[in-house]
Amino acid sequence: MVQKIILLSGGTGFLGSNLLEKLIEQHYKVLVVKRSTSNIHRISHLRDKVILFDFEDLDMLFEEYRPNIVIHTACSY
After folding, report:
1. Angstrom distance (rounded) from CA 65 to CA 41
2. CA distance 40 to 43
């Protein structure tokens, strides 16, 4: 079976970081899109299990990977 690739925006926030942990437990390959100014303290223990991208690198992300699923949890508050 081919591993599903998930693109997760907002993975450094409260909701996104908790969802990220569950997706990793389910053995998904997760690409996290974040702001360049985002604090990654909530996911620092997962750094070796995810691939981080800044929003500015979206073109490269889609050229290099073909996400099967997109989950949007990013917000501005």
Report:
1. 25
2. 5
